[in-house]
Every structure is written in structure tokens, then in C-alpha cells.
């Protein structure tokens, strides 16, 4: 797309005063042309020229500051549109896209029709000119798209690429100058000579690039989004705008993806629907579940909740051309036998409720506690979104279970300082907390907990914990800080309350 910057600017601003348009960026302290539009190109301006030279030739040019971030966002949007033709789409800097259409062309009645439809999609998205090339390797296609006069260009072998100038190798400027001085003007003249001659002068990188352009060496592209193995799509002969028809198509796609998951004994955790509109807009809706699932009804209900919660609802506009549905993240599915235990059904209902609340209000607003491998009480848990996967050690297993009855359900993040009157062996006899004195009727302890030397100190040192009960029936969890210190004033803290 040789006029990507100007096409992006025209698409955003919708204004044109007829003057040649150039985009300027600083390079080594000099204002240079980073890009030009078609009008400026026809008048002899090109990228790399100094702005002063361009104004000397054409005083009426319209200079605009280059915006690489906006250009990158625009080409990323075009990459989303190209997913309608193949799931394997990569950026081809600075102004191109690379599509791996292996096994996809038959869906469009051949490569020629695929190229025609791709041109139409790009034109609808605001691209004024796009040069297309279809070749066996990405480097050959890149060279033909940028330097061949034929558009679109279809290459079955290296015949067309051998006629291109040496600039199609896109080597360093000094290397290109050396080739021209040697009288080598086309790729064919270089390819007909032994590669050892060029490896000694231009390093092995030059010969590797030559082999890729000639199709002798293949280099697969790196897609922006890794192809998802669990995917289904429906292409519409005519754009679809009816919400009922869209809902029916989405239900069919969800059922197809769930069948694929069942065939592999896995369940989906994250599902994404992608809707490509006829005017080039792309809508993505993603839902997440707290447990692996492959039930289409559950997934569709989450999608309805998600649509109801969107500030910008799913607007079909002039209709959708393509609807895709993917299971972005999957996990092993453990088959379980049904029981008559009502608690099992309750767990499933709670999980479904968590999924619906997280979908409607956002997963960062529905939280749960998760255990952490630490014996310091205030560090033994953290708050995470409820849809996060469960850790390998749950609350009801291991050491956490053995101390569950010894820990209060309410633990303060910062222990409260208290005044304690201690008797023999430092056993508490009364405590004063929040200006109220509680006489201790029963005390169990101490339980000693040392600092974790591999982590930052908590500031309390070695602790001696006591479970105490007042004469009024109140039960507290208190500790003495710096229990092993000698000569320090005793400090007592209340860390939790039992029900």
C-alpha cells in the first residue's frame, strides 16, 4: 500500500484541498519526507527527500507531521479485515501485509477472485491503491508487490522475479551501488553467477536474501494472531443485518466449536466472536468462563449478557459479511459421573453465576480469595478475579486444612495494636482493644510463627499466637511480636476474630 499514510489521513479527516500532500519527520536534525500521496508522487516527490528541496520544487505542497503510531494502528485494522481471507496474517513493514493463503483460495473460486475481493475490501477501508502479488514464498511476493509493474501479479516460479531490478533485494545502499557499478542491473544477472562470489563481498545474509526472493529458500511468516485450532466461520452471500439471523448463525458456530472441543476431550475457557461488517468495521466480543465448558447454551447466554452490558452495542450497520467464532483458550476436560449430591449441582450453579456477573460487570469486579504458599497469616491469601483458574492447592487440601480450625475466618490485613496484661509464662489475662477491656477466661497457645527469611521482613519478628476467649464469650486471635527478642518491650496485636 504505497500511499498508506495519506490514505489513513484522508480516512480520518475526510478533507482534501487538492494540494500535493507530504508527511514530514525529523531525521538527523533535518526535516525529510517520510511519505507522500499519489499527487505528490506524480509530480516527482518521493520519500527520503528533504522538505526544503520539496518546497523548492513545489511551493504549494501541504506538509503534515508524520504519525507512525496512527499508521501502525491503521494497518493493524487492515490486518483484522484480512483475517476474512486467511487466519494467518502478518505485518510486512513499513506499509504492507503478508497473507498465507495456503488452502484458502478455493473458498473464493481461485487466487484471482481472492485478489479481486481483497482489493475491494481494502478500497472500502480507505486504501486508494494496493499492489498485490501471489508467489510461492513471502520474500518473492514482497519483491513482486513492490517492484513489479504488473498488479495483481501471480507467480508460479522465479521467472517474473528474475526480471526485477536489484533494488528488489532491498539490500543496503552501498551494496546496491556496488552491484550497479559492477554492471548488474537485474536479479537474473546476479542469480546466474556463483553465489560464492557474492558471499565473499556481501556476506551470507545477501545470498540468503537472494535465495528467498528466488523461491529457493522458504521463510514462513509470523502471524499477528496464532491460528486457533478450534474455529468456525460463516460467510454470507449478502450482508446480514437482522439480529435474529445473527443470533442463529452464532448459535450454529458455537455448536460447531463445542463439537470440535468434545472430539479432543477439552473444554474452552475463553471464547471470541468476530464480526466483519460490509463497510470494513470489525467487532470483537470475548467472554471468559471460570471452568472449562463446551455447552453452547452456557456460552450463548454469556454472549447475550455481554451484549447487554456493552456501552456500544453490536451495530450491524449495512450488515456483516463474515462471522467467526473461536475457542481462544482451552483446558483439559475431566469427565465426571453425575451424583445425587446437591452440593455438586450447587458448585456448578455458583460457577455459572460467577461467569455471568464477570461478563456483565467486568472480571476485575468479581473477586475471590486464592491461597498463597506462605505461613505468614496476612500473606497466605490474595484477591484475584473469580474467573482465574484455581491453583494446584485448594483451601480444603494439605496444610491449609490442618490449620483451618485454628485460624479465624476474619483476619485483618494490618494487625491492631492492643494492651495486654500477661501473667506467668507470658499468658494473657486481659486485653484492651478499642477502649474496651476484656477479661480472658481461656487461652490456648502459644503457636510460634517465625519470619520468612527469603522475603522482606514483616516488621513483627517471631510471633507467639494465642486463641483467647473472654468472660463475655468473645474469641480473639492475638500474638506477641518479637517473641524471641531479649530486653525489648513486649508488643501485642490482635490479628483476627472468631465467630
UniProtKB/TrEMBL annotation:
Ordered alphabetically, the record's keywords are: DNA damage
For this protein, the record's Pfam families field holds:
IMS
User: Which GO terms of type biological process are on file?
Assistant: DNA repair
Tagged with keyword DNA damage: yes
Q: Would you tell me the protein name for this molecule?
A: UmuC domain-containing protein
UmuC domain location is 18-144
Task: Extract the InterPro entries matched here.
Answer: DNA/RNA_pol_sf (IPR043502), Rev_trsase/Diguanyl_cyclase (IPR043128), SulA_CellDiv_inhibitor (IPR050356), UmuC (IPR001126)
Q: Which family does it belong to?
A: Belongs to the DNA polymerase type-Y family.
Instruction: Note the CDD domains from the entry.
Output: PolY_like
Source organism's superkingdom? Bacteria
Signal peptide span per the entry?
none
Amino acid at each position: 500500500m504505497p500511499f498508506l499514510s495519506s490514505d489513513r489521513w484522508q480516512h480520518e479527516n475526510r478533507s482534501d484541498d487538492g494540494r500535493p500532500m507530504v508527511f514530514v519527520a525529523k531525521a538527523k536534525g533535518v526535516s525529510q519526507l517520510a511519505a507522500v500521496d499519489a499527487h505528490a508522487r506524480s509530480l516527482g516527490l518521493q520519500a527520503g527527500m528533504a522538505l526544503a528541496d520539496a518546497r523548492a520544487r513545489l511551493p504549494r505542497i501541504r506538509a503534515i507531521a508524520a504519525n507512525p503510531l496512527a499508521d501502525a494502528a491503521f494497518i493493524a485494522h487492515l490486518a483484522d479485515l484480512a483475517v476474512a481471507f486467511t487466519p494467518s496474517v502478518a505485518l510486512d513493514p513499513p506499509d504492507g501485509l503478508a497473507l498465507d493463503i495456503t488452502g484458502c483460495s478455493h473458498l473464493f473460486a481461485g487466487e484471482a477472485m481472492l485478489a479481486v475481493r481483497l482489493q475491494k475490501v481494502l478500497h472500502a477501508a480507505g486504501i486508494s491503491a494496493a499492489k498485490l502479488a501471489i508467489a510461492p514464498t513471502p520474500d518473492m511476493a514482497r519483491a513482486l508487490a513492490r517492484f513489479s509493474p504488473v498488479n495483481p501479479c501471480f507467480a508460479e516460479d522465479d521467472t517474473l522475479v528474475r526480471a526485477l531490478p536489484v533494488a528488489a533485494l532491498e539490500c543496503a545502499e552501498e551494496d546496491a551501488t556496488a552491484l550497479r557499478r559492477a554492471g548488474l542491473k537485474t536479479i537474473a544477472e546476479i542469480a546466474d553467477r556463483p553465489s560464492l562470489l557474492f558471499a565473499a563481498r556481501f556476506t551470507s545474509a545477501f545470498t540468503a536474501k537472494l535465495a528467498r526472493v528466488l523461491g529457493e529458500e522458504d521463510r514462513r511468516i509470523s502471524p499477528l494472531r496464532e491460528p486457533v485450532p478450534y474455529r468456525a466461520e460463516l460467510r454470507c452471500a449478502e450482508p446480514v443485518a437482522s439480529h435474529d439471523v445473527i443470533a442463529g448463525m452464532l448459535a450454529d458456530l458455537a455448536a460447531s466449536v463445542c463439537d470440535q472441543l468434545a472430539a479432543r476431550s477439552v473444554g474452552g475457557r475463553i471464547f471470541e466472536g468476530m464480526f466483519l461488517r460490509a463497510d470494513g468495521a470489525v467487532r470483537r466480543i470475548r467472554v471468559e468462563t471460570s471452568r472449562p465448558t463446551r455447552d453452547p447454551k452456557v456460552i450463548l447466554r454469556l454472549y447475550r449478557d455481554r451484549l447487554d452490558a456493552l456501552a456500544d452495542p453490536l451495530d450491524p450497520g449495512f450488515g456483516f459479511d463474515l462471522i467467526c467464532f473461536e475457542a481462544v483458550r482451552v483446558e483439559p476436560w475431566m469427565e465426571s459421573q453425575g451424583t445425587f449430591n446437591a452440593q455438586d449441582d450447587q458448585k456448578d450453579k455458583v460457577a455459572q453465576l460467577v461467569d455471568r456477573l464477570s461478563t456483565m460487570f467486568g472480571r476485575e469486579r468479581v473477586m475471590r480469595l486464592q491461597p498463597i504458599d506462605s505461613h505468614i497469616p496476612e500473606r497466605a491469601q490474595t484477591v484475584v478475579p473469580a474467573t482465574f483458574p484455581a491453583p494446584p492447592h485448594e483451601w480444603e487440601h494439605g496444610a491449609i486444612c490442618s490449620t483451618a480450625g485454628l485460624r479465624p475466618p476474619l483476619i485483618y490485613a494490618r494487625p491492631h495494636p492492643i494492651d495486654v496484661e500477661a501473667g506467668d509464662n507470658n499468658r494473657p489475662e486481659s486485653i484492651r482493644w478499642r477502649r474496651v477491656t476484656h477479661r480472658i477466661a481461656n487461652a490456648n497457645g502459644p503457636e510460634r510463627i517465625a519470619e520468612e527469611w527469603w522475603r522482606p521482613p514483616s516488621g513483627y519478628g517471631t510471633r507467639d499466637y494465642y486463641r483467647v476467649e473472654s468472660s463475655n464469650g468473645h474469641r480473639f486471635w492475638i500474638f506477641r511480636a518479637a517473641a524471641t527478642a531479649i530486653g525489648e518491650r513486649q508488643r501485642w496485636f490482635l490479628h483476627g476474630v472468631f465467630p
